[in-house]
Amino acid sequence: MSIKQNWASAATIPSRVIRGFPRPNRSPAYQEERSRGASWIRGLLWLLVGGGLGTLIAVILFLAVGLVFLHQSDLIIPGVTVSGIDIGGLPQGEAMIRLEQRWQQQSITLNSSNQAIPVTPAALGIMLDLPATIQAAHRQGRSPVMLREWWEANQQIELSPVWRLDLAQTEQYLTDLTPEFAVAPTSADIRVMAGQVEVVPAIAGQTINIPSTVADLRQNMANVIANGTLSIALQPIQPAVTDVSDAVEQANQLLAKQITVEAYDPILDERLSWTLDRALWGQAIEFDLTADNQPKLVWELDSSHIERFLTKQAALSTPRHVNIEMLTGNVVEALSNDLPTIHTRIYHNSYPYQVQAGDTISSIAYQHGFPYPWVQNANPEIGNNLTVGQMITIPSADMLLPLPIVAHKRIVVSISEQKMWVYEDGAEKWLWEASTGIASSPTSPGIFQIQTHQENAYAENWNLWMPYFMGIYRAAPYADFMNGIHGFPSRDGAQLLWTNNLGGPVTYGCILISSENAEQLFSWAEAGVIVEIQP
Q1: What is the pLDDT, as a whole number, of residue 64?
Q2: Of the residues 163, 183, 210, which one is the last residue of a structural domain?
């Protein structure tokens, strides 16, 4: 049988014994000193409990001397252990060193469901009160009652250490440790998979429940030290958003939209259309929710997907393109404002041309639909000298269309037939006789547009007044005058010219129609209407 005792003052918290510590190795000097002290004490006690009445006086005297020695001795009575460490027969100082060395090796593992962090007891605010523990050990056997208990327990007394718990240190350490165990909650969200809106469920977070963990340590400190583990109490953190049904409905409505892109090529008078629908939106639209307790759906268009789609659709014949960046912006606007149709323009690039035998700047320009100074201006290095096989640049036909295009109206002039056709919404509106430039001052074929309106324009070079003048192109990029469409001109304010020549080349480069027709066209053809002049 052994005696197990605990001591704790008002400032201490008793705890269970830590078992299983290995016994320390003892030196020969220590063994000799301990043996002498133990033998003397055991002899004294044998006389006390086993002697006869005849030796009573001797026993009393011997006992008195022994008790005085025991009280004055620095030795701890044999058989005393603390937390499994045998310190019996040791001086107090050596016993204190032995316990302190063992305490320095003590570790406590903080456990949660998925983490384990080893810490020292001191980090948790647990401190071993060595002086109080040694004093308690030293008191053993210093009274007749204690001696008798010790003897009856086969000279074995097991003591628990005296611990102190600094609750402020415990709380501060757990507060500092919170990031190691904390998991932020995840609000519910939405995502698009294969064109379908899916709900991403909310996930609760967690953090350390400091009051509960501290209370557990305070109430079960002995078990914590004995087992070397402390379970961290965790408390859940609920996500801010758990219901995203409204956002799902809004996202599905957006994915269901269809937008038609109508692309118009004013040079070729060609119309193309492409449909943007769920198959594209599922890849191109990125959804998100605002970070508040009542989130709203926000979305952003990934322009790279739109650009790839439109680039593939607009893989056009001849060197031409659409403005993908501008068109992508138009798609965003159409989605935001629920617009079903987007109109865009097809542009033409400049392109190389290899000079053939017999070519001149004028013939090349005429063949490609430009007044020749425009081709010269695009190739400033060539001057008037051309060689067979030489590469020159034909400028973009869009250079002659500086204004926004009026796509539903078009004027077509045939030089060979000396006629003018006027179309609106693809249907012929008027067909008139017309006259173009004479051989020495020809009208250039090409694609132009109405740029200016003057009810009576004056051509100083020819001393002509031209009624209902509509300028359509400059003879050169740097010229300050324009060729255009007009009615019968007059000179000196009285004489009307070419009234009998309509239907044959007669002008100095302009396009002549009757004054009556010119007045109608002047009112009908706003700036931007295309004028196509065919050879």
Answers
A1: 60
A2: 163
**Can you tell me the mean pLDDT for 81-89?**
88
The answer as to whether 154 is a domain residue is yes
Query: Taking 50 as the threshold, does the pLDDT of residue 190 lie above it?
Result: yes
Task: Check: pTM over 0.70? Answer yes or no.
Answer: no
> What is the reported pLDDT for 101?
87
> What tokens does 437 get?
């430039």
> Between the CA atoms of 168, 170, 171 and 173, what dihedral angle is there, to the nearest 10 degrees?
120
CB 349 within 8 A of CB 319: yes
- Going by their DSSP bridges, the two strands 406-414 and 419-424 should be labelled as antiparallel
Amino acid at 273: S
- Is residue 199 in a domain? no
With contact defined as beta carbons under 8 Å apart, do 269 and 532 qualify?
A: yes
Query: pLDDT-derived band of residue 311, with 50, 70 and 90 as boundaries?
Result: confident
Q: What are φ and ψ of residue 10, in 5° steps?
A: -65, -25
What is the per-residue pLDDT across 113-153, written as a single tens digit (0 to 9) for each?
A: 888 999 999 999 999 898 998 988 888 878 888 888 888 88
Tell me, what CATH number does 405's domain have?
Answer: 2.40.440.10
Range of the domain at 23: 3-105+129-163
Distance CA 128, CA 136 (A): 13
> What pLDDT sits at residue 36?
47
Q: What are the φ/ψ torsions at residue 90 (nearest 5 degrees)? A: -90, 150
- Mean pLDDT (the chain) is 85
Full strand arrangement of the beta sheet holding 229-231: 116-119, 108-111, 229-231
Name the DSSP letter for residue 91: B
If asked whether residues 146 and 256 sit together in one domain, one would say no
DSSP state string for 198-229: EEE--B-EEEE-HHHHHHHHHHSHHHHHHHTE
Same domain, 159 and 261: no
Tokens of 168: 């402020």
Looking at residue 528, the DSSP 8-state letter turns out to be T
**In-domain check, residue 394:** no
- For residues 315 and 141, what is the distance between their CA atoms, to the nearest angstrom? 104
Residue 215: how many CB atoms within 10 A of its CB?
13
Are residues 292 and 410 both part of a single domain?
no
Question: Under a CB-based contact definition with an 8 Å cutoff, are residues 157 and 81 in contact?
Answer: yes
How many independent structural domains does the chain possess? Answer: 3
- Are 54 and 158 part of one and the same domain? yes
Does residue 351 fall inside a structural domain?
Answer: no
Measured CA to CA, the distance from residue 111 to residue 107 in angstroms comes to 13
